[in-house]
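Hey L., structure's done. Input below.
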Amino acid sequence: MKILIDIRLLNSHNFSGIREYTLQAVKHLLEIDKKNEYILFANSFFNKRRINLDMSQNAKIINWHIPNIVFNLLNKLNLVPKIDSI
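Output:
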């Protein structure tokens, strides 16, 4: 099964509870689940070294170079291409 996880907030410089929860959940899912395929969605200037994710063979990052404010506006207007078709 393909599982898409929105990790856009992991690129934030602010350490919040939601950011930390998402980071830990993704890290542990990638460690324990080798059966499913994980697609991690990021945008803008995502730096995977800063969050230190151990990317396994069953995970990949889709990085769209669109700032969050533009992405959210396009999403509200239903103009964003389908992420799951990638």
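The chain has a mean pLDDT of 80. The longest strand covers residues 37-43.

-- N.
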